[in-house]
From TrEMBL, chain A:
Keywords: ATP-binding, Nucleotide-binding, Transport
Domain of life: Bacteria
Alphabetical list of InterPro entries matching this protein: AAA+_ATPase (IPR003593), ABC_transporter-like_ATP-bd (IPR003439), ABC_transporter-like_CS (IPR017871), ABC_transporter_ATP-binding (IPR050763), P-loop_NTPase (IPR027417)
SUPFAM superfamilies: P-loop containing nucleoside triphosphate hydrolases (SSF52540)
Protein name stated in the entry: ABC transporter ATP-binding protein
Domain ABC transporter: 5-230
Family in the record: Belongs to the ABC transporter superfamily.
TrEMBL record, chain B:
Ranges for domain ABC transmembrane type-2: 20-247
Membrane topology term: Multi-pass membrane protein
Keyword Acetylation carried by entry: no
Transmembrane segments: 21-41, 53-78, 99-129, 135-156, 168-187, 222-241
Organism: Aequitasia blattaphilus
Protein name: Transport permease protein
PANTHER family tied to this protein: DOXORUBICIN RESISTANCE ABC TRANSPORTER PERMEASE PROTEIN DRRC-RELATED, TRANSPORT PERMEASE PROTEIN
Subcellular location: Cell membrane; Membrane
Primary subcellular site in the record, as a coarse category: membrane
PROSITE patterns: ABC_TM2
Length: 237, 247
């Protein structure tokens, strides 16, 4: 399988605190990969190092065989990103956010079509501040899809959403997965990881506890479902 | 170019939706000009170059739009965008987050220019104002003042990491400068001691430049203020470029 993301021995410390320690992973084309862990486990730092926002102290991370930091211009034409806790300019309207982002890419997707597809067309002229939590996250997905990406990063896309909105977002992700998009996501929700991820990795204090397919990760533990298995890994190691 | 145009048009709409910039940058100085013009427009201020209160107010008030964008608009917007991770989101696109920075500076400059034009129109139409000095030199001086104030604003945007601290620092810089540099209250009315304190403010020097240029005073006395503003601009730009963070 063609490797889309390749991370080896990634490490990062803030002062004396090691936030990410010796993480290695690789994600193939069309795979959905989930990075799981408590708050402060190093999930966001890992994503930010892969995206070149933060510089790793050790190790390397590549997307399409290139380091994001050094090849921003070419790389990000094909990479979609939703950063944790997405905020927008005050008073900005939905179509304006989309338009402002579209113009940054050479061959952006038609955001009107995306709004239509994700049932947000009726909010097109509304201020983003007035959207519900679920609608906002749907907008985040649309923004990540504007580059017509081959790979997307979703950092805690569903945190803070109610059950119904979360389900809706999952359905959208499953739809994207079926279309062959490579997805890197972080989440707190084990149900989400089970439903969406081909493979996952559980980390604690920046260190890998286990990795594999959902079945494998459950199989290594004495439990039957991912949530119990996850808690067992957290306490065991 | 297409990118810049879209960003300026969207950010410009956002600027208009939040009326602070228009009120403080455009309406307020025009209002003050009307007041000074009505109350004391014709009165002559004695000095090395005699001028009327209208002459003095015209030169001083054209800087208010600059200051409103330099110390309220631009740094607060940028600090807000940093806080909200909007700059960071631009970083993970093929384009540069600098587009947003330049876009905001251009919108600030446009607001300031509209303000100066508004003041000129009101001064000419209502009070028969005529500039004795060279208008092109005056425009050049205006842009020197703009560059120096914007560099100071960008310094604040770089050094203040959060919207909260940017707000506080901007207020601390903006209001004393606005009140004590002669931008709103005529400098000539200040007692000698206060004038000396006011001279420290870069804006006081900027206004001095504009007053001399608009009243055909002697260019010689401008060397010191211009050098002061240019050095200040260079220092601020260098520090702000070195310390600016996207997040």
């Amino acid at each position: 399988m063609k490797k889309i993301i390749e991370v080896s021995n990634l490490s990062k410390r803030y002062g004396t605190k090691e936030v990410v320690s010796d993480l290695s992973l690789s994600i193939g084309k069309g795979e959905v990969f989930g990075l799981l862990g408590h708050n402060g486990a190093g999930k966001t730092t890992t994503i930010e190092m892969i995206l070149g926002i933060k510089k790793p102290d050790k190790g390397s991370a590549q997307i399409f065989g290139k380091e994001a930091r050094k090849h921003r211009k070419s790389l990000f034409e094909k990479v979609g990103v939703q950063l944790q806790v997405t905020s927008f300019q005050n008073n900005i309207h939905v179509d304006e956010v989309c338009e402002e982002l579209s113009v940054l890419y050479q061959e952006p997707a038609d955001y009107l079509e995306l709004l239509e597809k994700f049932n947000l067309s009726h909010c097109r002229k509304q201020p983003v501040d007035g959207l519900s939590g679920g609608e906002r996250q749907k907008l985040s997905i649309i923004l990540a899809l504007i580059p017509n990406p081959e790979v997307v990063f979703f950092d805690e896309l569903t945190t803070g959403l109610d059950a119904k909105a979360r389900r809706e977002v999952w359905e959208l992700l499953i739809h994207l997965k079926k279309k062959g998009l490579t997805i890197f996501l972080t989440t707190h929700y084990m149900e989400e990881a089970s439903a969406l991820c081909d493979r996952l990795m559980i980390i604690k204090k920046g260190q890998m506890l286990t990795t594999g397919t959902v079945e494998e990760v459950i199989g290594y533990s004495p439990y039957e479902n991912l949530e119990d298995a996850y808690l067992w890994y957290m306490e065991e190691k | 170019m297409r990118k810049m145009k879209t960003i300026i048009s969207i950010e410009g709409k956002l600027a208009l939706r939040c009326p602070d910039g228009v009120i403080f940058g455009i309406c307020m100085p025009i209002g003050i000009l009307l007041l000074i013009g009505i109350i004391a427009g014709d009165k002559v201020i004695q000095g090395p170059v005699p001028m009327t209160f209208l002459d003095s107010a015209f030169a001083a008030l054209t800087t208010v739009g600059i200051c409103a964008s330099a110390f309220m608009g631009i740094p607060i917007n940028l600090a807000d965008y940093r806080d909200k991770k909007i700059l960071k989101h631009f970083y993970v696109t093929p384009s540069s987050p600098l587009l947003l920075v330049y876009g905001n500076i251009i919108i600030g400059a446009l607001t300031a220019i509209v303000s100066a034009l508004g003041i000129s129109i009101v001064a000419v139409v209502f009070f028969g104002y005529r500039m004795n000095g060279n208008i092109f030199l005056f425009i050049l001086g205006y842009f020197i003042v703009m560059v120096s104030m914007y560099s100071l604003g960008m310094l604040i945007a770089s050094l203040c990491r959060t919207i909260k601290s940017a707000n506080i620092v901007c207020s601390i810089v903006y209001f004393p400068m606005l009140l004590l540099s002669g931008a709103t209250i005529p400098y000539e009315l200040f007692p000698k001691g206060m004038q000396m304190v006011a001279n420290i403010f870069p804006l006081t020097q900027g206004i001095k430049i504009l007053k001399v240029l608009s009243t055909s005073g002697t260019i010689n006395e401008l060397i010191l203020p211009i050098v002061y503003l240019l050095i200040l601009s260079i220092v601020c730009v260098v520090i702000s470029v070195k310390t600016f963070r996207w997040e």
